[in-house]
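Q: Here's a chain of 301 amino acids. Please give me its 3D structure as tokens.
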Amino acid sequence: MKKFNKKITLLTMFILVLTLLTAGCGSESEPAKESSSSAAAQNDPGASKTLNALRAKGVLVVGSSNDAPFAYMDVTKDTFSGVDAEIIGEVAKRLGIGKVEMKQVPFENLLLELNNSTIDMVTDAMYIKKERLDKALFTDIWYKEGEAVVVKADSPIQTKEDLKDKVIGGQKGVTFLELAQKWQSEGKVKDVKVFNSQAELMMAVNTGKIDACITDGIVAAYTLKQNTNMNLRLLTPYEAEAGGKIGAALRFEDKDFLAEVNKTLNEMRADGTLSAILEKYGLTKDYMVLSNEEAKTVNVK
């Protein structure tokens, strides 16, 4: 009987040791399981390589020339603000990218910086044009835009025809400068002066250095609304000649990421988020592209 009890005791001890060893193995394998799950979240096989990299980095760096009301730093709030800023901010959020940061770049250098990989995307009310499609991919259309002519409030200029024999200004690297130069070649204006920024352009009109300037209609309306001290007005009535379509630019190698961005934009267009952002900045339905089919950009290289 004593011998039998001794066997039971040894057996019990063996089972106890085995249980402890098994429990120890289980506790060690749990963290490995969590690590594997975390890695999968950082490397989603259903997402593009670029999107996975941006999710891991936690930030999308976009280039802008700091143009209000499109994509600019609001110094009072220290936030990236504007129409384009809010659109790309919502896209990034839906794609699981932690935040969006703006890098200020002169407008004419934006595509150069993009292809030098110092920024991930260009979001600065950039027109989708053939010569730009030769340098980068573009998203589907965000919205439409057109030019405006700005003159001094007391200027005798009332119509486009009154610009004959006048000196007008345009911003370097911007589509509307090309239109101003076209007017000069056609004899519709006397001369065209080139300025590096929107602020310089508007100030030149305000101080009488030039008679008028041709610039982005949405920018002009926003600037005059925000700066009531500027003694300027928009030429009206006025029919825009250089209407264009706005989108964001990406590198050619980010084609898969472009598809993800476009899919998100389509969802935003369908659920009303995109139009709500545009309305917030005063864009009417004339500026909106409400159909996904109409919004498609044909990218060519």
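Q: Can you summarize the key feature?
A: Residues 2-42 form the longest helix (41 residues).
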